[in-house]
Amino acid sequence: MNQESNKWKHEKLAELLKENARRMRKEPTEAEEKLWQVVRNRKLAGFKFRRQHPFEGFIIDFYCEETKLGLEVDGKIHLQPAQLEYDQQREAYLNEFGIEIMRFTNEEVERNVFAVARMIKERLLERRKNLPSPLPLSRGRGASTKE
User: Fold this and answer.
1) Using an 8 Å Cβ cutoff, are 121 and 63 in contact?
2) What range does the domain containing 87 cover?
3) Does residue 144 lie within any of the structural domains?
4) Which of 17, 24, 83, 120 has a 20 to 30 A CA-CA distance from 57?
């Protein structure tokens, strides 16, 4: 029963996280909306981003699965010591999954979204270059290796 109860709690928390992500997608900050207009629909060097992406109990503002790069657009609350510590712990946890987080303030995005986009693009290209290549597909039993 305890294992079943834990499973139910985990599923409930995952659903609440998804609902929260949906709500956040519908109510972005001005800076988030401005950055979204630059990265959506593969506009930034062909990379696909997800907005308000739930991952392991957290929501990443923008996430590129191909390069495992997350983007966070931070308001002033992120300057408070307790929030800074939380953000550092969260980032360290996400790093364990190979996810790198780039942080920008609302002001940086609002003042010059294109400079922010350039920095993101450079990092995306760098990460794509440095990520391990996927394993080649198996040809299957009896498949010819001649071209």
Assistant:
1) no
2) 26-128
3) no
4) 120
